[in-house]
Specification:
Layout: E1 11-23, H1 30-35, E2 43-56, E3 61-66, H2 72-80, E4 87-92, E5 96-99, H3 112-122, H4 127-132, H5 134-141, H6 156-169, E6 174-178, H7 186-202, E7 205-209, H8 213-219, E8 222-227, E9 230-235, H9 237-249, H10 251-259, H11 264-274, E10 284-293, E11 298-299, E12 301-303, E13 307-316, E14 320-321, E15 324-330, E16 336-341, E17 351-352, E18 357-365, E19 371-380, E20 386-399
Parallel strand pairs: 3-7, 3-8, 5-6, 6-7, 12-20
Antiparallel strand pairs: 1-2, 1-4, 8-9, 10-11, 10-13, 13-18, 14-17, 15-16, 15-19, 19-20
């Protein structure tokens, strides 16, 4: 069975498969049926989920990622009981609250107040509790001006705000959230981020489907990658996110994925667990990396406000045209605070042959706050596929005479000017 914790999982999915029958030709009228009584109904089978197994522990923020059509939303609908499963079993230990599809559970001919009460009641609140929390729900959604407007006249952004507001007000142990960040303006997305922080600190269990790898890295304790209904990998959000990007931007990775479906779970999970810091197709490798100061001396510690450079040596094992060299720095809170690449600098790198060795450098003025930073270095081909990715394979300490508490220390000047006294108005 999936999962290794001795505690009872909040969600346990064991060997779940889901298949849909898609008719090749639909009969729309009785006339068509009468004219062709012997016509056979031919269907194609779509295997949306194939033997998916995983466990989510209580209090986990679990990310589910994958390209369009990978089975993410189907999985959440199976968890919510909207779809039945064709094989396997699902166990849920706690009350569920779901945010799965825009507008689901709302009556378009009713106004916000009636819809909130009905929706919250279906999610487990009593009608009295739903009415008591209505003002808070509407305030979070910022829809006080539209309380009497019928739901069918709401925009998609207004609908998603209202549905999300209802979901977070329900006293649920487990939240199922599907693409809440895909709809809504930037201000509401930031409110969602803040609410995610509060939910995570409260110890509730969350299963989040998203294409936003930044949100996965920021909030999730673990993540899972689906591709064509198969579970490709589970593990640390950074590792799963890297594999997801590889599938999106590398044709070779997609072809390899399609050709290895029978063994994909074992091979790719092993790849992420056993070689988490070294991903790519192997045409080149980052052999070593270091930092230097403005005098070109190798540094084990950098000093804020002084110039420095990140350096790396690359060995090519095959011919590569116009690779993109890149690096990123993460602070101890896991936040990406600085990134650089030859693509961002619009620097043409040229063509390299098997056996070539290259040193690349990124020069920058160090404005970083004192902390220990993890370093990621990578090479991509011009199509975006990983050639080599060394994820957080080294660290560097940054020191300063004073810590400000910010992410960076940006130089600034100060001006303080005494204003002339205002003359009292004549009486």
């Amino acid at each position: 069975m999936p999962g290794s914790s001795t505690a009872t999982p909040a969600v346990l999915v064991d060997g779940v498969s889901k298949r849909f029958r898609l008719p090749r030709e639909r009969v729309h009228t009785l006339k068509e049926r009468a004219l062709h009584p012997l016509r056979r109904n031919v269907h194609d089978d779509l295997l949306a989920l194939d033997d998916v197994s995983f466990a989510v522990e209580p209090g986990e923020f679990f990310g589910i990622v994958g390209r369009n059509g990978s089975g993410k939303s189907t999985l959440l609908k199976c968890l919510a009981g909207i779809y039945g499963t064709d094989a396997g079993a699902i166990y849920v230990n706690g009350r569920l609250s779901t945010f799965i599809e825009l507008g689901v559970g709302f009556n378009p001919d009713l106004a916000a107040r009636d819809n909130v009460v009905l929706n919250a009641t279906m999610l487990g609140l009593s009608p009295k509790e739903a009415r008591e929390r209505f003002d808070d729900i509407l305030a979070f959604a910022e829809l006080e001006e539209f309380v009497d407007l019928k739901i069918k006249n709401y925009s998609s952004g207004m609908l998603v705000r209202l549905a999300f507001s209802v979901m977070i007000q329900v006293d649920a142990d487990i939240l199922l959230i599907d693409e809440v960040l895909a709809v809504g303006d930037a201000a509401f997305q930031q409110k969602c981020f803040e609410e995610f922080e509060r939910i995570r600190s409260s110890g509730r269990t969350v299963l989040l489907v998203t294409h936003d790898m930044g949100a996965v890295r920021r909030f999730c304790t673990r993540a899972m990658l689906l591709e064509h209904g198969h579970m490709v990998a589970t593990g640390k959000p950074e590792e799963v996110g890297n594999r997801y990007l590889e599938l999106n931007f590398s044709e070779a990775a997609r072809e390899a994925e399609a050709g290895q479906r029978e063994q994909r779970t074992v091979l790719l999970a092993s790849r992420l667990e056993d070689d988490a810091e070294h991903l790519g197709d192997g045409r080149a490798e980052i052999v070593e990396a270091w930092f230097v100061d403005e005098r070109n001396e190798v540094m084990e510690m950098l000093h804020t406000a002084y110039p420095c450079a990140f350096c790396a040596r690359v060995r090519f094992h095959a011919d590569v045209e116009a690779p993109d060299f890149a690096m990123g720095l993460y602070n101890t809170r896991g936040m990406l605070v600085f990134t650089a690449s030859t693509a961002l600098a619009q620097h043409a790198t040229g063509t390299f042959s098997a056996g070539d060795e290259v040193e690349f450098r990124f020069y920058f003025g160090n404005l970083l706050e004192p902390d220990r930073y993890s370093v990621t270095a990578s090479l991509r081909d011009h199509g975006g596929g990983w050639i080599d990715l060394r994820d957080r394979f080294m660290t560097i300490m940054v020191a300063a005479t004073q810590a400000t508490g910010g992410l960076v220390q940006i130089p600034f000047d100060v001006g303080v000017h005494r204003l002339p006294a205002k003359e009292e108005a004549a009486t």
